[in-house]
Amino acid sequence: MTGGPAVEVTLRFHDTFDWRFFRAGWTLEEESSGRKGMVRCRDWRTGERVTVAIRGKLKQLDDLGGAAREHHLHRISGLRALMARAELPFHVSDLSLLNEDRKTVVRCRVEQFEPGRGQSARAPEPFTAVRLNALRGYETELDGAAARVAGKAGGRQENCALLRKAMAVQGEAPGTYAAKPLVTLSPSASAREWLCALCEQLLDVMVSNEFGIVQDIDTEFLHDFRVAVRRTRSALGQVRDVFADRAIAGFKDEFAWLGQISGPVRDLDVFLLQFDKLRATVPPTLRGALGGFHDYLHEHRASERRRLLRHLRSARYRRLVTDWRAFLAAPPAQSLGPAAAEAVVPVAEQHTRRILRRVLKRGRRIDDDSPPEALHELRKSCKKLRYMLEFFAPLQPPEDAEHLIKRLKRLQDNLGDFQDGSVQIAALHRVAAEMKASESLLAIGALMQRASDRSALARRDFHRRFRRFDTRSTVHLLEGLFAPARASLPR
């Protein structure tokens, strides 16, 4: 065995805020020593590895260049930025294991961690991790190499990911954030217990996304924040009689306020995210004229974002978070409604069926002469039904629930395409009125036409989509959705 002296390095683990790479089986390990750095993208499942040299900070997957694109890693990250999630300082020794002919057959990397001054009390005990890689043609040497290294390194001999150890330094575990709530209470839990647990999780999602909104890391922080607000409003509005109306009226008003103040920035984010696609839909001769429109969107977003941050830093917002958390932890007896003590299963079933009936009733009333508002109201009802199915997913057979949500999603996609076109046209009208003599007006007019065409296409396809949802099979699926949980209740 031969090798050079140990070198001090920092091993930094990157992922998106919602742990997309970890959930997909990948780790992104940035190793830096001085000014030099490299990133190892490692697939736990297959052992596949992409190694890329970098300079400077790693913020986006684009910083890894073509190697990451070739391995489709961009599909994992989507719109999310990379973040440094954890790091560990190491002493690294690179060793070569030789055979009897003095030829290198296995490369060995020994990583030794020893907590030093300033390290958290939660830091793991000193440990040694060993990575072994056989040279081509010498794969059979790995087992023997592991035994030889064991005597030298005195540590664990495996190609292991160190992410969990690095997260332990921070007292955390990877993959813990989830934008969707998942209540794990028993079906025999009361409706009050279930609703409080659900709303607490949604509040945690809101609060955990605040820093990303303030730092403007990526657009999905605000998106997750807004969805948590909408889900909270839907839960309070649709799961009735658990809390007395007078007890939560103020909270409902405040969550409506959060939706209002965060809407403009999100609308502008969507415009900017879609800008390149929108630009490609206008005639080539007009595309250059959209530069002014693009500048307008950025300037307007900066202004609206400053306003949003003032609200998020306000005493009003902090008071809402504090008071709502205290209420959920111990709702006063006088705030409870008649359904608070009931088992959650019949309450969930009753309200989910009620919303399905509303969806079917509203959809059946829509004809070719119905105003756009009718489709908008149906879309909102579909969204409430979707939330109810997600809220109570642990009480439902997973396959049946997934099948029903897929059917609903196809209808939602159609209604969303129609609504997006209508909203986009209205927004473009406002922009055109404000920009007035801008050279972008002709191009904006072309965008309006494309939005109108897409909206009309979705409107023509509505009845076909709705008929596929409005079936006996859909009703039958929902009617049986809570049967297993109902049967498990004590008699």
Please give a structural write-up.
The protein has about 500 residues and is α+β, with helices and mostly antiparallel strands. It folds into 2 domains: about 1-170, Hypothetical Protein Pfu-838710-001; about 190-485, CHAD domain (Alpha solenoid). The protein contains 19 helices and 9 strands. The chain has helices spanning about 20-25, 65-70, 75, 140-155, 165-170, 190-210, 210-215, 220-240, 245-275, 275-280, 285, 290-310, 315-330, 345-365, 370-390, 400-435, 440-470, 470-480, 485; strands at about 1-5, 5-15, 25-35, 35-45, 50-55, 85-100, 105-115, 125-135, 155. The radius of gyration is 28 Å and the shape is globular. Residues about 155-160 have low confidence and may be disordered.
Instruction: Based on Cα principal axes, name the global outline.
Output: globular
CATH class type of the largest domain: Mainly Alpha
Low-confidence stretches: 153-160
Number of domains: 2
- Rg, please? 28 Å
Individual helix count:
19
Provide the CATH superfamily of the largest domain.
CHAD domain
Determine the CATH topology of the largest domain.
CHAD domain
Give the number of DSSP strands. Answer: 9
The helix/strand series, from N terminus to C terminus, equals EEHEEEHHEEEHEHHHHHHHHHHHHHHH
Assign a percent range to the helix content.
55-70%
Biggest β-sheet strands, sense, barrel: 9 strands, mixed
Which CATH architecture of the largest domain is right?
Alpha solenoid
Structural class category: alpha+beta
What is the terminal separation in angstroms? 70 Å
Question: Averaged pLDDT, please?
Answer: 85
Multimeric state of these chains? Answer: single chain
Percentage of residues in strands: 5-15%
